[in-house]
C-alpha cells in the first residue's frame, strides 16, 4: 500500500477515534446514560500510556487533560457530584453556563436552532447524511457533531473537510473555552480542554483554513 494512502487512513482513523471517544461524554448522563462502560474505562485509564497514544494533541497537554478527567471520576461514577455537574452544564433546568449548541454563539439572537443549525441541516441533507437524532434536537450539539465527525471520517471522508471547516471548527474552540471556564468538576474541564486540543490538532494536520464568525456570547 502507498505510504501516503496509509497515512491518510491512519489520520481518518484517529479522527474517528476522537469523535467516538469524546462525543458520548457530552451526550450521556454519567448515571442514567448509555456511556457507563466508557466512564468506567476512563476511571481505570493508564494516563501515561493513553497520553502517549492520543492523536492530534501534544502528549503533555493530553496527559494533563486526561489526568483531570480521571481525577473527576476518582470519587466514582455513582458520585452525585459528577451527575449534577453534567446536568448543570448540559441539561438544566437552570440556564446553562456554556450551552452546547453552536448557534447559541454564532446567531445574533443567541438562540437554539439558529442560522448555523439550519445551515448544517441543509448541508447534511444535500450530502445525503441522515440525522442522528429526532427532529426536535438541534444537530449542532457538540456531542452530536463529534459523533457525526467520526461517522463521516469512516463513511464519507470526501466531505470531512467541509464539515469541519464550515460547521464544527468555526465555533468549537470558542465554546470549549467557555465550557472549560464554566466547569466546576475536573472531569468536564479536562473533557473540554482535550476536545479543543484534539480538534485544533485535526485542523492543523489537515491544513484547514477556517473563517471564524462573530461570537455573540
From TrEMBL:
Pfam families given in the database record:
Nitrate_red_del (PF02613)
Under the heading NCBIfam families, the entry gives: PRK11621.1
On the tree of life, the source organism's domain of life is Bacteria
Keywords in alphabetical order, please: Chaperone
* Entry-linked InterPro entries: DmsD-type, DMSO/NO3_reduct_chaperone, TorD-like_sf, TorD/DmsD_chaperones
Q: What is this protein called?
A: Tat proofreading chaperone DmsD
Amino acid at each position: 500500500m502507498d505510504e501516503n494512502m496509509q497515512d491518510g487512513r491512519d489520520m481518518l482513523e484517529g479522527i474517528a477515534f476522537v469523535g467516538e471517544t469524546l462525543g458520548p461524554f457530552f451526550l450521556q448522563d454519567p448515571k442514567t446514560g448509555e456511556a457507563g462502560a466508557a466512564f468506567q474505562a476512563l476511571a481505570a485509564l493508564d494516563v501515561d500510556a493513553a497520553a502517549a497514544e492520543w492523536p492530534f494533541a501534544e502528549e503533555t497537554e493530553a496527559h494533563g487533560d486526561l489526568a483531570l478527567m480521571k481525577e473527576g471520576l476518582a470519587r466514582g461514577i455513582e458520585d452525585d457530584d459528577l451527575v449534577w455537574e453534567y446536568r448543570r452544564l448540559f441539561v438544566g433546568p437552570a440556564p446553562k453556563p456554556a450551552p452546547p449548541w453552536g448557534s447559541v454563539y454564532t446567531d445574533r439572537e443567541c438562540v437554539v436552532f439558529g442560522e448555523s443549525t439550519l445551515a448544517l441541516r441543509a448541508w447534511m441533507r444535500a450530502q445525503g447524511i441522515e440525522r442522528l437524532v429526532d427532529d426536535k434536537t438541534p444537530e449542532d450539539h457538540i456531542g452530536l457533531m463529534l459523533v457525526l465527525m467520526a461517522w463521516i471520517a469512516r463513511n464519507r471522508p470526501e466531505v470531512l473537510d467541509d464539515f469541519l471547516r464550515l460547521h464544527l471548527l468555526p465555533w468549537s474552540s470558542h465554546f470549549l473555552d467557555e465550557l472549560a471556564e464554566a466547569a466546576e468538576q475536573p472531569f468536564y474541564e479536562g473533557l473540554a480542554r482535550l476536545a479543543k486540543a484534539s480538534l485544533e490538532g485535526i485542523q492543523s494536520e489537515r491544513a484547514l483554513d477556517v473563517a471564524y464568525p462573530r461570537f455573540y456570547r
